[in-house]
Amino acid sequence: MVELYEAGNQSARPNKISYVSLINAITxxxxxxxxxxxxxxxxxxxxxxQDGHNDLKPTAKTIAMVxxxxxxxxxxxxxxxxxxxxxxxxGLYKEAMDKRLEPNEYIYSSVxxxxxxxxxxxKAPRARRVLEKMRKMHxxxxxxxxxxxxxxxGVINSxxxxxxxxxxKKDALKIALATYKESERTSEHGxxxxxxYATMLAALNNLLDPSPERTAAMGSIFKRCCITGQVDSMVLxxxxxxxxPSELQEVLCTEDLVTPEGEIKRGALPVDWQSNLxxxxxxxxxxxxxxxxx
Length: 294
Hints:
Layout: H1 2-6, H2 16-27, H3 34-50, H4 60-71, H5 78-96, H6 105-116, H7 123-140, H8 149-160, H9 166-185, H10 194-207, H11 212-227, H12 233-242, H13 245-252, H14 285-288
Helix pairs in contact: 2-3, 2-4, 3-4, 4-5, 4-6, 5-6, 6-7, 6-8, 7-8, 8-9, 8-10, 9-10, 10-11, 10-12, 11-13
């Protein structure tokens, strides 16, 4: 299409649908370099907009597709590249104050997730800084999006799976605890859910050596999970793989709910421990982006 257009066929000029369809196709492909390719097309689209084709101005939805590709890429620099793209997006938004470029919760959670899935030193504090940047911008009125459960859980996840280095793990533990406590104090929009509790249990298991203190800390998180009615199979599996049968009995405060092999008796658990679990659809990227302006 570009070659035909440059050769003089005006009707062949790629329009917004052409670029967005190409980005969508690339991000859904099995290409290991799909994030780089999609980002390149995005910047080509923006260059055309700068050259006077106003119909090719990128929107938050288009940028979100590229961010989604980065967070799923598994690249060592995925966090850095995703955050750089977010900063570029914020620059465009501040310049034009165009609602179609305002980042929402999904945008920020994708960047945090990209840091979480990166294999690099310092990913936990970088993920935390993205969260703090989002909160400050929301509090100042610069954006309407506030940190939600996915954002807080993403930061905790970056801590739970940091590199196996003593200093790295020490910093990650502090960040995980601070982020969890902050989420507990937020409005309903950001409160912990079953995934948050399971992720926090993973963080304690991975960042602390086996000890009575670790068992007590995990017991404290599980107690909150029970009180809020968010105990699901993910939470229970995390306990079973982290604790011995005797430690499980200590955390559950009874021997009746634990088998000698260290399995929790699902059918015997109190009903109110699961009272606030909601059925969640895995959904698609399209469904996840419904809140972003077209």
